[in-house]
Amino acid sequence: MTREQAKKAAEELVSRMTLEERAGQLRFDADAVERLGVPAYNWWNEALHGVARGGTATVFPQAIGMAAMFDDEFLEKIADTISTEARAKYNALSSEGDRDIYHGLTMWSPNVNIFRDPRWGRGHETYGEDPYLTSRLGKAFVRGLQGNGETLKTAACAKHFAVHSGPEALRHHFDAVASPKDMTETYLPAFQALVSEAGVEAVMGAYNRTNGEPCCASPSLMKLLEDWGFEGHFVSDCWAIRDFHESHKVTSTPTESAAMALKAGCDLNCGCTYQHIMEAYDEGKITEEDITRSAVKVMTTRFLLGTLGDEGSEYDTIPYEVVECKAHQKMAYSAALKSCVLLKNNGTLPLDPNKCGTIGVIGPNANSRSSLIGNYHGTASRYVTVLEGIQDLTDGTNRVLYSQGSDLYRDCVEPLAMVDDRIAEAVAVAKRSDTVILVLGLDETLEGEEGDTGNSYYSGDKENLLLPESQQVLLHKVLEVGKPTVVVLMVGSAIDLTEAEEKADGILLSWYPGALGGKAVADLLFGKESPSGKLPVTFYRNEALEEMPDFTDYSMQGRTYSYYQGTPLYPFGYGLTYGNCSIRDLRIDDKFAYVKVKNDGDVETDEVVELYIHDEDSPDAPPNPVLCGFKRIRLKADEAAEIPLPIDPNAFTVVDDQGSRIPGSGKWKLFAGFGAPDRRTEELTGRKSVCKLINE
Asked: What is the set of active-site residues?
């Protein structure tokens, strides 16, 4: 069914509804209209890294981990798998009369906000800090969710429009003031790409105001969507319209808020404020045309999904048995392998079970399921923690000792115990081990969304970039023992690992790697596969926060790899492998880059070829080279290849202070490497990017 056909069908159906029935379709928990054969429908479902909150589903690595794959082709396949499971669950559950929340086909994903500040608790829901990377990955995810059939497989949603990226505690009343340049250059590109290039079916407004206008009723933002050719429906974030009168104080009553949002173009309300639509109509604040317009939009989406009318969908026969099937679990395991980032290796990794002797596995995340799954997660039928993965891999070869070592953030594990009640045990385990694997980090209770986290004091955001004090003590005490020690870090954001960088033998960042993440981590530690992930965010030292703008300042100056002038702990785009790849040559032809790559090592590995560009003369260019192309490749030992990479069309433009994208200076430097072309990357890898000067 084409959009035009779906719209005509929606118009005909809506014309037969009463005005009250039309208004009832504009809430996330839409009413049934039984006399017209319209079943009740709950619009709220999540698919951030698997079908979430609705029972059993394949749990993939958290979004920030999938961003670290730098692999949009594979991410599209993952999203297609997620939509397959969503259809399977919808088919099975709706046939049982279950039309509850989290069981529908409208998936409120992906989150394409920019992870501009490392303290933001929801940053791990995003694809990182770079607009180009976020755009590429977001488009792939939307295409995978929506499919290429005659009907939508599921309906994707670009959120949170716009600028939203913390602080969580202030989001309900905060005005995110961003310059025209930062809007065009950083905050808007991913949304524009998802609308104009991927045809995303829905856009969700943010809680905050942007430049004075509440995002769910912003004339400026709605005009942008119109200019980009948006044809789908607009949905509010949950209870965001209530914030108009309770927090932003731009209205005085729920009725005024409902009217303001609907007239501005917010078609669907996640929350309860649209219960006041008929009051707004009776008071003359909105018209029948306002209600009808939005009702047609949301019903058009339902027709496009094949859930209304007689035609149905080609996806109606997807069986429930595909949910968490072996093929999907294998894909989740592969994603975990590709997402892990090797931050340090002094030669200790990969471990050899026949040589590493007794293994001490220590740390609060070593045997934690919570540290596997991030937030907005489904429920797996089986989880493999890091401890279990190591035990399974070394079974029959090595003795594995275990100590929790510390609580995740409290100063003791047992309520009646003394401070640091597991430290002595951790030290004892370390002393009796030949090799130590120390598993540290956070989970969704320490970084996440306001209201969804147990860390209520900071509302999900981090106060600083340090590990919780209990883990700092544990790290120091275990390293002090002096045994070969590898740190596995399970987090969704930047952490200052200065002590581990100085004293540990290896550091593997696993993010929140999904239900089978422990198996993937073990296989990487012991060399069954080579790590190959790259950082989609900068890992700063904690003192860098003093140099950055305040968390509430949305200026990009001093933030992210594009504008940060200090020396990071680990730079954007960085990640080691067990291979030894090098860039041999770079040539440019018709805005394509051709990069010759050679694996000089004796280990087959994936690598990510990264292109960066810098305008040498324009005063409007960011101070540092920016990502403009990437490609994940796989090279056997001693294999060479020439890799074609399209260069981002915007690479040869800049954004001026008025927010206009204009041609660049005509003189650029193009860099090809396995990370950003900065001094810290060169220091960590021992390699320089290959550079070519482009003159137009």
From this structure: 237
